[in-house]
Amino acid sequence: MSFFDKDEQLNILGKEIVEATKLEFSELTCEQIAITWLVYYSPRARNIKNATEFWQKQVRGWSDRGDERIYPGRIVHLFYLVAIYEWLEKGMVKTSPELERAIGDMILSSNHDATGLVVDVLTGTTSGPELSPGPFQTWKYQRNFVNRYFQSLKWPELKSININQKTWFDGPYGRERIFQGLLMENRNILTTNAAARLLHSIVGGIAVSRQASEKMMNLFKKNPRQEDAKDVTKGQAIGFLDESLPQNANIWSTGIVDTYVRHNFAYIELPNLQPYLLVVFTEGKEISRNQRILPYISQKFVEAMKKL
User: Fold this and answer.
1) Residue 189 gets which letter from DSSP?
2) DSSP per-residue letters across 79-90
3) What share of the chain is helix, strand, coil (3-state, %, to 5)?
């Protein structure tokens, strides 16, 4: 059973957007895109205030290839973020200035080195040269600690995911490369439905705790006033969902691009429209270079929201 209500109106509008996108970008095939779309009845501030009422009613949603297993790139940082707040809340690890700096840089800058530290803290493992079989088995068991945590939630959307790898600039070496597998069969894998389910819990204020969810949302929050500045923030916005949104939009989002993927998630509140959440994964070398696809899709979803 899906965590969202598969709404027929959203299904019609969503399919129209996918078809329009494929017509606009002929290089994009059905196998290179996955989308999950959730629509809320009221803003998150009201939902959190009336949490019992909010969680009694299933959110409306739609997905296209939402269960397709896709390499997530740095979107995996979202899962490591929730895990590290869980560890901190339960007293499994202690905070420190360096850990706090790494958590912020992992999300705000998509920093690989920061992510490496967070993964080390989460799992009690470190990178390095190859290990002999016995110690390597122990190391692999420890590295799967985050996987076991998310599987313990018993969410159907998380059954097929894998989140036990660090993210890299040029790729892993030593024990990290061996751990990925000869054909990288053990690399990180997510689905848009899995990402949307986790984001839904953060937006709704129940990921780890209400306080932790607020901290996470603060890391995702975009300041529209920064987009006019000639700085890194503007550079990061180009080619993502928030680029085509109006200046009066409230946006919480993260977008990543590398050689083969361009992914984005965003929770969006627009004046006079229902709030909504979008998770869009696109893959393919040529697709990842195209800075127009995600802004185009975002614009189409704004148009669709006006029809609800």
Assistant:
1) B
2) HHHHHHHHHHHT
3) 50, 15, 35
Three-point CA angle 63, 45, 206, nearest 5°: 65
Pairing mode, if any, of strands 33-39 and 60-64?
Answer: antiparallel
Query: How confident is the model at residue 175, as a pLDDT?
Result: 98
Going from N- to C-terminal start, the domains of the chain cover 1-67+191-308, 71-190
Give the chain's residues under pLDDT 50.
Answer: 225-236
Using DSSP's 3-state secondary structure scheme, residue 115 falls into helix
Nearest to 60 by CA among 19, 18, 12: 12
- Parallel, antiparallel, or unpaired: how do β-strands 250-257 and 33-39 relate? unpaired
- CB burial readout 257-274, b (16+ within 10 A) else e: beeebbbbbbbbbbeeee
In tens, the pLDDT along 172-188 reads 999 999 999 999 999 99
Least Cα distance to 271 among 238, 237, 224, 231 occurs for: 224
Tell me the pLDDT tens digit for each residue of 250-265: 999 999 999 999 999 9
Confirm whether pTM is higher than 0.70.
yes
Q: What one-character-per-residue DSSP string does 178-222 give?
A: HHH-TTSTTS-BB-HHHHHHHHHHHHTT-SS-HHHHHHHHHHHB-
The count of other CB atoms within 10 Å of the CB of residue 39 is: 23
Using the structure block, give the residue that is written with the tokens 């975002």.
298
Q: What confidence score (pLDDT) does residue 225 get?
A: 44
Q: Report the C-alpha gap between 121 and 123 in whole angstroms.
A: 6
